[in-house]
Amino acid sequence: MTTLVIKSVACSLCILNTLSSVSPNVLKSPTPNSLRHVMKAVLINEFGDPSVLHVEEIPIPKPSKDQVLIQVKASGINPVDTFLRQKAFGHIPPLPFIIGKEAAGVVVEVASDVGSFKVGDRVVCCLPFDGGYAEYLTCNSSNLIPLSERLTFSQGAAIYVAYFTAYRSLITKGSIKAGELALIHGGSGAVGIASIQLAKSKGLKVVATAGTQEGLEIVKQAGADVVVNHRETNHLQKALSEAGSKGFDIILENKACANLEEDLRSLREGGRIAVVGCEGTAEINPRWLLAHESQVFGIKMSAVTENDFKECTACLVKGMRDGWVRPIIAKEYKLEEAKQAHEDIMHRHGARGKLVFVMDQ
């Protein structure tokens, strides 16, 4: 049998655009118009295990051209944060820096050239250069998304990484169409939940997997039509039988090292697989690609263009208004619990939604 061995230790969440420059949210002058001049932040002064995460007081940053100052209410916690902390990432910012790819909060100051947002606006902060684990942060106005009153700040802090990954996987690259059958592998995690909701909003029938009873309930809550336990033998065949289909049109794969070969066997003609996570190597038989004329592609957030960002933002703003964008929060932490939060995201078995920090302010 002809085989192809794919080696990977990456995930779409750890291929975010983190440039090797000092974080714009660290060591700036304090804002003179605020009642406070310092803020708490989780600062990394050295790379290593979770013990290197320390809460420190540093000056509140001042917005520069085209920026706003955000009072953070909640910050998202993602696997990429743990990779950055360990220096196990392609582009590492110099020390010290504040990690965190996403946050939600309230605009408290705007630069004079910003006309699209005003003080008091609720926003989601998309942070390709990090800075989310803090009580305040500055963000380019072009990287902000209005946050609907229908969602909490914790839910707002769960939008950028998960929903943008889902959108790029299923729409930008996956070209999904109404009536198709989607498989969301690992549907109880933040990206899985976002993918289920997005696929359903576009008229797809959705099969989703989870590995625990609680996870199975989560994917049902997210809107999956068919739910299966991926720890069971022949779970994909059972899912296809229940869905009344001979193959999936598109698969979102969170653990390609374990599932890619079986995914390829389960596609229908012209099927696609979006790989958003892989923790090791995968051995596949390329003949399955020939048999179905199928495609396998990876997803990285750093490839999102300005137009991609605007398109996805428009979809999510409408989704918040229509009610289908509904992040599910697994647990909330204080900044002082950063070490435990990183232990939990690295070692938890059976995801149940998003982990977030909430601020004491």
From TrEMBL:
The keyword Oxidoreductase does not apply. Pfam families: ADH_N (PF08240), ADH_zinc_N (PF00107). The keyword Zinc does not apply. Residues 1-21 form the signal peptide. One of its GO terms (molecular function) is quinone reductase (NADPH) activity. Residues 48-357 form the Enoyl reductase (ER) domain. GO terms for cellular component: cytosol. InterPro entries: ADH-like_C, ADH-like_N, ER, GroES-like_sf, NAD(P)-bd_dom_sf, Zinc-ADH_QOR/CCCR. Keywords: NADP, Signal. This is Enoyl reductase (ER) domain-containing protein. It comes from Clastoptera arizonana.
